Amino acid sequence: MTYKRFFITLFIILISFPIFIKAQDKIIDQIIAIIGSNVILKSDIEAIYLQNQAQGITSDGDMKCEILENLMIEKLMVAEAELDTLITVTDNQINQQLDMRIQYFVQHLGSEKAVEDYFKKPIVQLKSELTDVIKNEILSSQMRNKIVENVTVTPSEVRHYYNNLDDDEKMTINTQYEYAQISITPRVSEEEENRIKEQLRDIKKRVEDGENFTMFAVLYSEGPSAKLGGDLGYFGKASMDPAFSAAAFSLRPGQVSNVVKSEFGYHIIQMVDRKGEKIRCRHILIKPKIEIETKEKQLNLLDSIANAIRKGDITFEEAAFRYSTDKNSRSNGGRVINPMTMSSKFEAEMLPPAVSKVLTKMEINEISKPFVSTDEQSRENFMIVKLLNKTEKHTANLSEDYQLISDLYLEKKKDDTIQEWISKLQSKTYIRIDDTYANCDFKFKNWIK
Prior knowledge:
By secondary structure, the protein is of the alpha+beta class. The chain has 14 helices and 15 strands. A hairpin with a 5-residue loop joins strand 12 and strand 13. The radius of gyration is 28 Å and the shape is flat.
């Protein structure tokens, strides 16, 4: 018997039986699948299942079947990626993904302590165990991108694809809006800045005199971490506002910073711990308040601008360039781009709530009255908007929705290419799946031979 046949026989024997710890007389693991020379253990699936729950990931199907298939695809792709000298993974890439994964856990479970309790291990150990997992995910992703990098679609292919769709396969497009805005974020008064700075300086002094930073964060901080005592967990320098990071990374453990201004407001920061290129900090955030007189002044200014546009004294595009403080739209005539699709079309639920409330009641080319909206940093913005176009709810068609249909077909073509690539590897790779997963409804066929 050759060594290759011996090991395959051994794998077949192992897959039929759990692995036991005799001293403890209980099952600790089981081989669920063999892909070539790689195995997938029950513990691998259970670990990812726990991680998905910790990130709030749900599924309409059998999640463990989906996890198994993803792992099998990953094993095929990683094996190929490791043979490609142009595909590499850096420590920085792994560390960034590790940080993001832990932050997802913390956000969903509430705190680092809750994460450790949930996984029954320290964060440091969890990160160590995730390192190879994340490396393989990155390798697999890069291999997938390489497989489809030359896949394109032509207009004739898109038309042929669309014309051969059954009516029930053509997607429904909800009502979409295109709009332009003039948005003004008012400057904070010097008095308000001084008030906040004085409050934060007083807290800093009291902490340095022995009082508890966490208590002050719970009482006064206006950031989402307030309920955690201002604890931000471990983070890298590039993951925070530049001014915030510069101040935080200059601290020693236990030290409290001077007042720091960021795009979110004003902070004081307390260093908790440092691990290599990562630090753990607490902070107290206080956001400036806009005075009533300032609000009225901005609303009156926007009302005057809107009237001037309606009378033809100035175009909306000129007014946006002259008055708007939104850097993303002011040089584009005020036209707003959807960051999710990179088009100018928005469905109502994609819009900021205040904008949606106004825009959905307007006529095309109408200029709104001034109103107040809130941005991603929870700052008040004073706005007027113009409805540029409105596309009513309809079945997708080539004249109005060509780009969307083209994108959908491109994704289908990429999926088909991936399927073909996987099928070729399936046919020449030894694959064995445990009977407990034999009834899984896998996306890609031919796993079970």
